[in-house]
Design a protein that fits this description.
The protein has 306 residues and is an alpha/beta fold. The chain has 2 domains: 3-185, inorganic pyrophosphatase (n-terminal core) (Alpha-Beta Complex); 195-305, DHHA2 domain (Diaminopimelate Epimerase, Chain A, domain 1, Roll), CATH 3.10.310.20. The protein has helices spanning 13-30, 44-53, 117-128, 134-147, 158-171, 176-188, 195-200, 230-242, 270-276, 293-305; strands spanning 3-6, 34-38, 59-60, 68-72, 88-94, 108-111, 203-208, 211-220, 247-254, 259-266, 284-288. The strands form 2 sheets. It has a 6-stranded parallel sheet with strand order 3-2-1-4-5-6. Strands 7-8-9-10-11 form a 5-stranded mixed sheet. Helix 9 crosses helix 10 (293-305). The model has no long low-confidence stretch (mean pLDDT 96). The structure holds magnesium ion (3 copies).
């Protein structure tokens, strides 16, 4: 029976690369008939990364009914496959706070507080003494550079850096920072994308004390790239909020200036000041040093909403 390895909704490069790598790992380590999967089409960054290293795109899967599943890069029901309880979860590999997925059977869990799922996967290969294929090493390297914003994010650990050094050697990458910049330039491109594409490119819904809160993020090499689309993005998140949400926030992250402008649409804009201690005059606020949704934005809002 096929075992589908799948990351979160609105797949990012870590969800895609970890699905491919974990599928390869369980095939070799446990003889499982694994299939790498994603819950939707690839974003431009992930497409660039797979092309660069000649790795095939995962199959698109959206429903878990009747399937065996291994989760990567998430354990939250809201971010997972439809009808997850009608499937069987065999394992999870992740680097987020533990979510609300439960299982009737024992499972193999690898959940570590590091900057990227692929850092955990690197250790899984090492633990089992399995060689990482060159192309897979390349996409894992890119996933770590992406999730840690080239080691600048507060989520980055020494394990992430060590994994990148080892993966770069296997993949034959001499200058990983040049590769990272090339990747972030692809990620920064907004031409041809609709406002909805941009808002949902890296978007997650959260339940905060009974309030539905959406938080999206666009990471660019220079905030001026987003100037022409800012008004359109604000209009778009107003629409997303109108669809039953208390608040929608969109982080426009400048990876060189190392901070984020946050666009705000909320029933109670005072939560922003409560969360970050800075007064938000109007529709946006600059948050200096804030680059990580997971570590610097979600926990602050969770406290502000409590
Ligand atoms: Mg992710
Ligand atoms: Mg990740
Ligand atoms: Mg990210």
């Amino acid at each position: 029976m096929a075992v589908y390895v799948v990351g979160h909704k609105n797949p990012d490069t870590d969800s895609v690369a970890a699905a491919v790598a974990v599928a390869d790992y369980f095939k070799k380590a446990k003889g499982l008939d694994t299939v790498a999967a994603a819950q939707g089409g690839l974003n431009p960054e992930s497409e660039f990364v797979l092309n660069k290293f000649g790795v095939a795109a995962p199959e698109i899967v959206t429903d878990a009914a009747g399937k065996q599943i291994i989760l990567v890069d998430h354990t939250d029901l809201a971010q997972s496959l439809e009808n997850l309880s009608d499937g069987e979860i065999l394992g999870a590999v992740d680097h987020h706070k533990l979510g609300d997925v439960t299982t009737p059977n024992p499972l193999e869990m690898w959940v570590w507080p590091v900057g990227c799922t692929c850092t955990v996967v690197k250790s899984m290969y090492d633990y089992a003494g399995i060689e990482i294929p060159k192309g897979i090493a390349g996409i894992m390297l890119c996933a770590i550079l992406s999730d840690t914003v080239m080691f600048k994010s507060v989520t980055c650990t020494d394990q992430d850096k060590a994994a990148c050094d080892a993966l770069a050697k296997i993949a034959g990458v001499d200058d990983m920072m040049a590769l990272g910049m090339e990747m972030f330039k692809v990620k920064s491109a907004v031409e041809g994308a609709s406002m909805s594409d941009l808002v949902f490119r890296d978007y997650k819904d959260f339940d905060m004390s009974g309030n539905k809160v959406g938080i999206g993020q666009l990471e660019v090499v220079d905030l001026s790239i987003l100037e022409p689309v800012k008004a359109g993005l604000l209009d778009e998140i107003k629409k997303v909020k109108a669809d039953g949400r208390h608040s929608v926030f969109l982080l426009l992250t400048d990876i060189m200036k190392e901070g984020s402008e946050m666009l705000i649409v909320s029933d109670d804009p005072a939560v922003v000041e409560k969360a970050f201690g800075v007064a938000a005059g109007g529709d946006s606020v600059w948050l200096d040093g804030v680059m990580s949704r997971k570590k610097q934005v979600v926990p602050n809002f969770e406290k502000a909403f409590a």
